């Protein structure tokens, strides 16, 4: 059997690498029109950072795992074609700001129909709005030249930073297809691939619409938990409660559980906001404005949390950060990934830059080019393929990137911790304090520092949802 995946990004690359590792009898090709991206997959410096990915790729590459820009050849030869292309949020036209833009999906479907000489199973792998499969099916059947296509939805449920472990040992694999004999046969063919390593009871099957909606629903539920605890964090600060203690007590209820209950500066990543906006749009289109409004609130609380954090920083530092050096520790949206898509750090940095702060940024996995790109790009532009993004983004002059936390914090007035990298917990804060302007502030957006120890050193510390320092008590949380 031959498998081809169109799209060599965060989903396609790791997923296909693990399939190749677990199914040595299957030839797997990952194709993409981006020459630099494919070159990186074929090099020692992979285009994405994910713990364990290097080892998997090196074990299979050149044996039964291939990365290529010859898209048409590999699609033509494949029995199963996974499509893992960008589905950005529309920025203009019908549904702007909410609906998904299916331009890349549609062109992929037309190309598959064009080059195919044999029957194929086409698998939706990227997050797509409900009913995409139906649209793709129409394109393929109207351009099929007598070739039969079966469309399956196989949404990914990976968490960045643990994607390889998630692929090795998934909670569930969901496969949606048509409830017809041909549809069932296609479902069984894909199921047989995953059955090489996933126990059968964890491979769930559903109809197409249920599979597509399950992905949006899962992400909306997870984001909702984060927004819920973040809403509580604001109340904790106002009342002197400790959000860590509150979330621990809540998480002990077995009906709720402890995951996704850590208060923070906000959620990020490529899926949560986009999928909820998509859900909102589908609800509106189906005449369900109350349901749409409910999910919209999850994003509003996330935006509120980021604004609240920026306002805390500015209010604490005598109501201005103009020309003050602020050290930003962490730019990726979470630890163990270099991914910056929708990272809260973008909004926090833009908020501080709006008050004319000078930023010194350190993240162990994010390059200066990426930081500058993110800070100068328009909203939603990040989700278009790299070659369609601005080539040389305008440099934000008040921003410098350094490769060491001590360099970032030297002579700084304040520190914002925006990613929970383990190394930030081990920093020598006495050394940092001695080299900072006084009073020295720490704004912990991830609740990873020991507040009492830092206060003993001399810092004024703000941790989200924790009892406020006397210094901060009279400062307004929201400007």
What keywords describe this structure?
479 residues, alpha/beta, globular, EC 1.1.1.22, NAD binding
Structure characterization notes:
This protein is of the alpha/beta class. The protein has 2 domains: 2-198, Rossmann fold, CATH 3.40.50; 242-472, Rossmann fold. It is 42% helix and 13% strand. The protein has 18 helices and 14 strands. It has a 6-stranded parallel sheet, sandwiched between helices. It has a 6-stranded parallel sheet with strand order 11-10-9-12-13-14, with helices on both faces. Strands 7-8 form a two-stranded parallel sheet. Helix 6 links the parallel strand 5 (120-124) and strand 6 (149-153). Helix 5 runs parallel beside helix 6 (132-142), helix 11 (272-285) packs antiparallel against helix 12 (289-316) and helix 12 packs across helix 13 (344-354). The radius of gyration is 24 Å and the shape is globular. The model has no long low-confidence stretch (mean pLDDT 92).
Give the % helix: 40-55%
Say which CATH homologous superfamily of the largest domain is assigned. Answer: NAD(P)-binding Rossmann-like Domain
What portion of residues belong to β-strands? 5-15%
What is the overall number of helices?
18
Tell me the strand order in the biggest sheet: 3-2-1-4-5-6
| Global morphology | globular
Q: Termini, distance in Å?
A: 61 Å
Q: Sheet with the most strands?
A: 6 strands, parallel
CATH architecture classification name of the largest domain: 3-Layer(aba) Sandwich
Per CATH, the class of the largest domain reads Alpha Beta
Uncertain segments are none
What's the pLDDT, averaged over the residues? 92
Pfam families: UDPG_MGDP_dh (PF00984), UDPG_MGDP_dh_C (PF03720), UDPG_MGDP_dh_N (PF03721)
Binding site for NAD(+): 7-12, 32, 37, 85-89, 126-127, 160, 271-274, 341
Protein name: UDP-glucose 6-dehydrogenase
Active site: 271 (nucleophile)
């Amino acid at each position: 059997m031959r498998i081809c995946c169109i799209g060599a990004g965060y989903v396609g690359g790791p997923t296909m690498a693990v399939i190749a590792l677990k199914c040595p009898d299957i030839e797997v090709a990952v194709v993409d029109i981006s020459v630099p991206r494919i070159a990186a997959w074929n090099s020692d410096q992979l285009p994405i950072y994910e713990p364990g990915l290097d080892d998997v790729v090196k074990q299979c590459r050149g044996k039964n795992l291939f990365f290529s820009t010859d898209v048409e050849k590999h699609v033509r030869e494949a029995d199963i074609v996974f499509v893992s292309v960008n589905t950005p949020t529309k920025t203009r036209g019908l549904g702007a700001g909410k609906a998904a833009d299916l331009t890349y999906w549609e062109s992929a479907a037309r190309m598959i129909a064009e080059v195919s000489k044999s029957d194929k199973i086409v698998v939706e792998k990227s997050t797509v709005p409900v009913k995409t499969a139906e649209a793709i099916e129409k394109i393929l059947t109207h351009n099929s030249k007598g070739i039969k296509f079966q469309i399956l939805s196989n949404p990914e449920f990976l968490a960045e930073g643990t994607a390889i472990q998630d692929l090795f040992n998934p909670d569930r694999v969901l496969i949606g297809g048509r409830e017809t004999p041909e549809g069932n046969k296609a479902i069984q063919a894909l199921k047989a691939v995953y059955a090489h390593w996933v126990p059968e009871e964890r491979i769930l099957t559903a109809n197409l619409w249920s599979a597509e909606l399950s992905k949006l629903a899962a992400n909306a539920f997870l984001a909702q938990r984060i927004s819920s605890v973040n809403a509580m964090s604001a109340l904790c600060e106002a009342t002197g409660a400790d959000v860590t203690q509150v979330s621990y007590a809540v998480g002990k209820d077995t009906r709720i559980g402890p995951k996704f209950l850590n208060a923070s500066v906000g959620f990020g990543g490529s899926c949560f906001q986009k999928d909820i906006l998509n859900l909102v749009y589908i609800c509106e289109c189906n005449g369900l404005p109350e349901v749409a409004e409910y999910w919209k609130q999850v994003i509003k609380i996330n935006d509120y949390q980021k604004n609240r954090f920026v306002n805390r920083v500015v209010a604490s530092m005598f109501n201005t950060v103009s020309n003050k050096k602020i050290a930003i520790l962490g730019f990726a949206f979470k630890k163990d990934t270099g991914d910056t898509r929708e990272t809260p750090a973008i909004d926090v940095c833009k908020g501080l830059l709006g008050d004319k702060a000078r930023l010194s940024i350190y993240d162990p996995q994010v390059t200066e080019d990426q930081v500058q790109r993110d800070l100068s790009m328009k909203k939603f532009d990040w989700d278009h393929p790299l070659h369609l993004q601005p080539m040389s983004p305008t440099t934000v002059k008040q921003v410098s990137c350094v490769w060491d936390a001590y360099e970032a914090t030297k002579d700084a007035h304040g520190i914002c911790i925006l990613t929970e990298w383990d190394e930030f917990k081990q920093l020598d804060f006495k050394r940092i304090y001695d080299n900072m302007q006084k009073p020295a502030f720490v704004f912990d957006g991830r609740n990873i520092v020991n507040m009492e120890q830092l206060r003993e050193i001399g810092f004024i510390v703000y941790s989200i949802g924790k009892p406020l320092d006397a210094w901060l008590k009279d400062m307004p949380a929201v400007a």
